[in-house]
User: Fold histidine kinase from Phyllobacterium leguminum.
Amino acid sequence: MTLSSPLIDKNVVDRRRAQRNPELAKAMRKTRDRLLEQTGKANYEYEILRIYARAVAASAVPIGLFVAIVAVAGFTVGLKQQMGIWFALSVGCSAFLALATRKFMRTPQEAVDVEHWKNVFFAGHALTGLGWAYFASIRCTSCGIDFFPFAQVLVLLVAMAATAIICSALRGATFAAFALPIVTYSLTSGRELPPTFHGTMVVMLVMALIFFTYIATHFNRSSRMTLAFQSEKDGLIAELETANAMSDEARRRAEEANLAKSRFLASMSHELRTPLNAILGFSEVMSKEILGKMGNETYKDYARDIHTSGQHLLNLINEILDLSRVEAGRYALNEEPVRLVDAVSESIHLMQIKLQKKNIHLTENFEPELPLLWADVRSVRQIVLNLLSNAVKFTPAGGEIQIKVGWTAGGGQYISVRDNGPGIPQEEIPIVLSAFGQGSIAIKSAEQGTGLGLPIVQALMAMHGGEFRLYSKLREGTEGIAIFPAARVMEAMPAIKPKARPAKRSRAA
Assistant:
């Protein structure tokens, strides 16, 4: 299995969705359920009344036009007096309802008595019901028996549908407005209409009232659910903003603490190294008996142990200081033209003793005639040394290491170090790439390191604008690839040809 490492983060963490998404989804579900429990108990009567008031205010003009059209149609069939009375009554009731909704909209929420305003709005719809009841009681003997009662029913159906849609936020408004008109129609039209026709019209009106009341109730329920979801969304947004603010604050504090630590360690280079150099120097003098025989072999062994431990501690301090300088922004790159093959060859020469000690065969595969690279040669050597040290550490005696230098597909240059060691489990790769992180194989190994080699490689490659990738598979080995971008490759400039001098003219010419 392969995994490429993130480059920007100082401490690499596992960002794979397979591990993070279930926990995130579980937390979101818990928050959603809790908010639903809260919103399910919330009282949305005020918001529902505002929805109702806005709908009534917006539909005042269309309803007025509809009433005017019906009145004009009544005028054309000779019902001028009846239609005039009905028009005045309808406009007056609608005006009362419009004024009530307007006053409600201007009243502050804390001063609103929801039950009082509900009663006011129901009273307004009852008044409009009086107007429609008067319309249902109108009779026209000169219009024809089959025409006018059917037209009345048609107008009542249209008005009922419009009221159910517009006033759906106020539960029961449709019934309050049209129960009386239906009763009035059934009582007043029965004397003049045939029983079958009259019964059909009444049944149609009753069924329409039931149907539109159901539709209005359904719309009312939808409005409440919409408000509940809106409240839930607002609650989630508030919680996310709070969590985000807390996360930003925690990250800021962590970055400040990390930066303070890095600055402290970067400034402690002299204070930490000076006593260690004295320990290493004196222990080496004692172990080699430069000033004379010690007289006791045990003391001589102790001196060797002191020197070995001091050397290990010095290497650890150097790596910590290097990483701290990079994190603190105090690691300055001394960039110059570098031949990548030469820098790698010098690093291999420094590792020859360790390679020979474990009888490891090193295979070199270098691309010939690579152009120069604009980089820090010291950083390049450290990158190669860290990769080779890891490879030597985990390659068994008599094993093989392959090192390659060549072109990338994008025009950059790369360094690849591959070993045939035990490999790294896929789930441990992010741990290996983090500071002081060690895999299970490294912990079991006798040659435990500091866990800073690969993080330093990542940091140095990031400073060069490149990337570091780690590929590994159990029982097949590990490959580390340091990739320099194409922008750092220096193109060879063509040789400048001398300009031909013009031939001198002879005096005779």
